[in-house]
Amino acid sequence: MTASKRPRPKPSAAPSSADEPPIPMGPGAKAHPPVGLGLWALGRWTRTDEERTRQVLEAGVAEGIRWYDTAEVYGNGRSERLLGERLERDPVLAHEGFITTKVSWEHLRPNQIGAALTQSLERLGRSRVDLYLIHAPDPKTPLRDSLGILEELWKSGRVGAIGVSNFALDELTQAVDLLSEAKIAVNQVRFNLFDRSDAEPIQAFCRDHGILIEAYTPLARGLLNGRYLDGRKAPPEVRRFAQRFFDGDRWPDYVARARRLKDLAERAGVPMASLALHWLRAQGAAPVFGASRPEQVAENMAAWRSRPADSVLAEADAIARGERA
Ligand SMILES: NC(=O)c1ccc[n+]([C@@H]2O[C@H](COP(=O)([O-])OP(=O)(O)OC[C@H]3O[C@@H](n4cnc5c(N)ncnc54)[C@H](OP(=O)(O)O)[C@@H]3O)[C@@H](O)[C@H]2O)c1
Question: Does any ligand 1 atom lie closer than 6 A to the CB of residue 217?
Fold first, then answer.
């Protein structure tokens, strides 16, 4: 189906993202919604998958999600384009949405970043993006050069706030030191109940410097929704991306812990994913989850709207760390 023949979606009616207040991002920047939908889709960008991603995005809008995370590398720009199409048809979302995109680690030289942003903005159909992240550091490009340009883009108003992704503590410290007027608003890293190895070393620094941690892979690719507890194996693409859980001797242990989390959620009367999402919020992080089907978006937002008691989150924390009852 071509874009012109596709039925026009209704403008988004839901009042706000997530029944939780947005997170302030500093003067001049839009406040950051506490939960978001990622439009990566694990590289599956056949025509059918593209249509499915469109439906996922539609479900996100229907659920009142305001923060959408994309990147120039996702589907080689197709993710940005698809989001741009949706924004074009929905003035409410275009106005209220919080749109994050990322410059690729391959485009961090000073003469590349401005052009990369221009192309991202064209695909998104916007004159400005709310948050622009360096997708990952490139050891071959001095950070000083990239950040200087990012700061100029921020001053020009084409970027509401700037941030980084996959930065370790030393890289993050360097980035903060290199900026003069702008600040690093965000570091987006992999962070979930089972995998804290990227986030824990930066948590204190981020707190001290007012940097929000955006948590990607918050549901451990569905393991924290109770998926894979029936012994079914994860597909190879998922195993490749999430080797830390799915490969080697650790997998049976993660499954055992996930079963205990599921039991805990049942006892507490909340969906299992509530533990994963609200544990991250309790850490001060903002989760950005993914979905391959619209029903998953609805389930995850139902989980988001059901906040477990602090004592339940503390128990989830202990179970996920492998502590015995
Ligand atoms: N900055 C970076 O380098 C980076 C890296 C990775 C991700 N990200 C961002 O973070 C977003 C989320 O990452 P992620 O996709 O790894 O996170 P995730 O939320 O942990 O995993 C999403 C996957 O979990 C499964 N799932 C989701 N909801 C489910 C439900 N209700 N029931 C059962 N299974 C469910 C689906 O797997 P199936 O697809 O198998 O159905 C879905 O694709 C990405 O879209 C992207 O925007 C950023």
Answer: yes
> What is the whole-number distance in angstroms between the Cα of residue 42 and the centre of ligand 1?
8
Query: How large is the C-alpha radius of gyration of the chain?
Result: 19
Helix axes 110-124, 78-88, angle to 10 degrees: 40
* DSSP structure string for 174-203: HHHHH-SSS-EEEEEEE-BTTB-TTTHHHH
The pLDDT of residue 11: 40
How far is the first Cα of the chain from the last one, in angstroms, to the nearest whole number?
54
Distance 37 CA to ligand 1 centre (A): 9
* Index of the ligand 1 atom closest to the CA of residue 218: 20
Mean pLDDT of 175-200: 96
Tell me the domains of the chain and their CATH numbers: 36-321 (3.20.20.100)
17-39 confidence digits (pLDDT tens): 446 788 988 777 899 999 999 99
Write the DSSP symbol of residue 89: T
Phi, psi for 187 (deg, rounded to 5): -125, 120
Distances (CA, A) of 161 to 40, 100, 185: 21, 9, 6
**Four-residue CA torsion sign, 82, 18, 191, 98:** positive
SS3 271: coil
